[in-house]
Amino acid sequence: MGDLFEGYGSTLAPRKTVSGVPAFDEMFEASVGAEGLAPSRAAYRELYQALAQLTQEELRGRTESLASSYLAQGVTFDFAGEERPFPLDAVPRVIAYDEWTTIEKGVQQRVRALEAFLDDAYGYQHCVRDGVLPAALIASSQYFYRQASGIHAANGVRIQVAGIDLIRDEHGEMRVLEDNVRVPSGVSYVISNRRVMAQTLPELFHSMRVQPVGDYPNKLLQALRASAPSGIDDPNVVVLTPGVYNSAYFEHTLLARLMGIELVEGRDLQCIGGKVFMRTTRGLKRVDVIYRRVDDDFLDPLQFRADSMLGAPGLMLAARLGNVTIANAVGNGVADDKLLYTYVPDLIRYYLAEEPILKNVDTWRLEEPAALEEVLDRLDELVVKPVDGSGGKGLVVGPDASPAELNKLRKKLIADPRGWIAQPVIMLSTIPTLVEDGMRPRHADLRPFAVNNGDEVWVLPGGLTRVALPEGQLVVNSSQGGGSKDTWIVGGDAPQRGLRGPDGLAGLVADQASVTQAIPIIYDPQDEQTHSPQDRPRSMAEQQEQQQQEQQQQASASLPNHVPKNAASEGLDQHHLGHGLPEVGHGRGGEGGC
Amino acid sequence: MLSRIAESLFWIGRYIERADGTARILDVHLQLLLEDPWVDEDTACRSLMGVMGSFPPEGTEKVTRSDVLTSLAVDRTNPSSIAYAVQASRENARRAREIVSTDLWETLNTTYSRMPRRINNEKVHEFFQWVRERSALAVGITDSSTSRDEAWQFLALGRAIERTDMTARLLATRSLTEASGPSWTTILRSCGAYEAYLRTYRGMPSASNAAEFLLLDRLFPRSVIHSIARAEKCMSAIDPVADRVGHSNTVLRALGRIRNDLEYRPIEEILSELPEHMEQVQKVTREASEAIRARFFPTHAEPSWIGETS
Q1: Where are chain A's structural domains?
Q2: Cα of A68 to nearest chain B Cα, Å
Q3: Are A435 and A469 in contact (CB under 8 A)?
Q4: B17: which residues sit within 8 A by CB, 6+ positions away?
Q5: Which range (A85-89, A570-574, B194-198) has the least confidence?
């Protein structure tokens, strides 16, 4: 038994909610006593046993090799001008398949509702007419673009890729923290985390049936192809990146590589006559679908920021004419506005006539005067977020903030109540994480990725688990000292693998075919040519032959007349023997005939 | 393939070859300085740097061996240094990351991250050896795992062009300083050509034989002629247009001209004006490179859109 979990519960004052409930620990059942560890939860049991075999030093060594592998692969982010490997913790997060099914359904439902909302918001706005949303909410959103109004993809999809951020509250229930339907990033880390984990900690995978994540690029490409303008048989799909200096550049290259499509920059694109082309070594080539990883603002200098060099002038016109599909669609930001977030449960009921499967975090809309008053009153115990920020930007955690900061915040809230929302401090669940002191609980969230191809919303089994590495830190972000964990969905049926799987069509055919076995036809056995004829390993008989030959040559040196003939016949004999012993050859031939 | 990617591949090829060639040239010449105490260090170093297209800062009184080493091997800001070539090849691979194979990328990335910032005197030879090995590794990995498509052709084209240039520079160092230039044996050795040469000519190196070998041998892969022919082959594969009259491809025209010039001129004539001819070869490689850029990687003036001002 290793010492891995020694002192796991030794945090002196673990962070608790206002009402005194500690955070939910995903691996251990109750809070840990001084004597030892509480029993591990069912989903983690096998993992815990596998980990307990390791010592801290061993695990640290593995963690280092994870990091150096990432450095070599270029899975890095810039930290003060220096390249650091993307931090990956060696302990994976485990979610049982049954719970995952619920999460999956919840995410699918949410994406479908947001999809319907976007279609409505950039269309007839029925939701406003029916009184579900105030009209001002849409119009006042910073990411509502009139330029996008009336643009439809051929298959009606606007959210090809969604990242729905989830957290587990202190009671162990998954809740939605925010929706990302503009350009959600992080999926490359899911894919590469899994690969490098399997390389460095193979023993953890032994007994557990972890759902694979490698399908993502295929699903994404399929969804992108499905959204191509109609009438195009073999659409040319490209990934549009802002360039090498973007922090997610690694992700762009990985996706382009795994989908086998071109990665273009804005300067590679050219719009002529309402169509988009890319510059190749063989002239211009038409582009049909652009999976863009450039923000709305920078896409088209004719419509948005005039100083943008990252997009291509004329892109929006081409999209409006239906000659190119931009994925995700422009203007999706209105759906991940944090104020709209508070209405999503209503939207689910309105558009889908279903009850929301995943709950929101309770949120105060500061636009309502009563809510604003209450929030201002309790500012020191709430979390306040700007509606348009993502990744923890501009967020203020009340209990951690100084009175001066709170005063400043208070003025901002009064000046611009539309710009902010407030939520109670939620204790994000904790997962054991290897830090300086050893294995310690750290707060984590989860971002599952959903891909919508128009027919179904597919949720990547797993997702990106991000961990806040400083103790007690509740804001989880890689730019603020966050790490990541591989996320394992364990159990459930083997995934459908089409023709390649054991149950697939090919397997069926193979089963049928294997009734009669192929009969090997055996000729005189010949060695494969793996060595040059001079160097090949020789059989005993040959060696003897060679010795005899040498002796004979020595002997015949005194009889010069006989040399040529003798040597020739010996050479021939040796040639025959070189193909193996004739008796053995016949024996095998007989078998083959049976 | 995207023009931008093709350009990156072309330059990856050039930079890999440049790192290799520079390491070879420096290795031979720095060793020579040690071996031959009669060489004037300052003159030799200045002319070596001149041949590599890099010049000591104004007002430097005496250029020493370690100055050459610093500026041509490990200085990351000097465009003719090994470190710069390594860094640039890695940057280009990063830009074409989705086309470049993972193996090649990891090789280039690792070379870059292990590139020393300083070398001790006793490690010099080891360092050059390492650079050559890393280049060989990168080339070998590409060779064994890349489809022979356009991507490969552009990379090979870059390598062939750079190799022509490097061998030309190496030959030019022969006549650096009349008395104290490297011997033909040294030059042959630095190309890894010594043994091949011995087998071909079976004898002590004579000036005309050695020059002939490095310039005109059609079978030795580092000779100028072989590299030019290789570049021509890549070019034809990329742009397979058979003209009935002449050649419309400017790259092929430039390469073909210099090849014919070298092939059909008596070797004595070339030898007597070696620096001029090598300068000519370098000029042609620059021309060819320029023509490739104009033909396949057209750069466009970035349009800038002025928003309405009111």
Answers
A1: 362-425
A2: 10
A3: yes
A4: B135, B158, B159, B162, B163, B166
A5: A570-574
Tell me the Ramachandran region of residue A134: left when phi exceeds 0, alpha when psi lies from -120 to 50, beta otherwise.
beta
**In the structure encoding, which two tokens stand for residue B110, read together?**
């690792």
Other beta carbons within 10 Å of A488: 27
Answer positive or negative: Cα dihedral of B42, B43, B44, B45: positive
Verify cis geometry, omega within 30 degrees of 0, for the bond prior to A328.
Answer: yes
Contact B119, B73 (CB under 8 A): yes
Half-sphere exposure of A123 (CA within 13 A, CB side): 11
The CB density around residue B108, as the number of other CB atoms within 10 Å, is 28
CB distance B98–A307 less than 8 Å? no
B304 touching A (Cβ < 8 Å): yes
For residue B181, what are its two tokens?
A: 């230039």
The overall pTM is greater than 0.80: no
The distance from CA B205 to its chain's CA centroid, rounded to whole angstroms, is 24
CA separation, residue A115 to residues A56, A122, A177, A347, A356 (Å): 47, 11, 18, 10, 15
pLDDT value for A372: 87
Architecture of domain A362-425: 2-Layer Sandwich (3.30)
> Do residues A152 and A320 lie in contact, with contact meaning Cβ atoms separated by under 8 Å?
no
Closest by Cβ to B106, choosing from A72, A244, A302: A72
Rounded to whole angstroms, what are the CA distances from A274 to A326, A450, B307?
14, 31, 21
Residue A102 Cα to chain centre, angstroms: 20
B110 vs A contacts (CB less than 8 Å):
72
Q: b/e for A373-386, b at 16 or more Cβ within 10 A?
A: eebbeebeebbbbb
DSSP secondary structure letters along A474-532: ----GGGTEEEEEEEEESSPPPP-GGGSTTSHHHHHHHHHTTSPPPPP--S------S-
Listed in sequence order, the residues at least 6 apart from A304 whose beta carbon sits closer than 8 Å to its beta carbon are A145, A147, A296, A297, A298, A311
8 Å CB contact of A74 and B109: yes
Dihedral angle of Cα A47, A52, A58, A63, to the nearest 10 degrees: 30
CB-count exposure of residue A568 (10 Å: 0-12, 13-18, 19+):
exposed
Which residues from chain A sit within 8 angstroms of residue B307, using beta carbons? 306-307
**Coil/strand/helix, residue A397:** strand
Query: pLDDT tens digit string along B48-104?
Result: 888 888 887 777 778 888 888 888 998 888 888 999 999 999 999 988 888 888 899
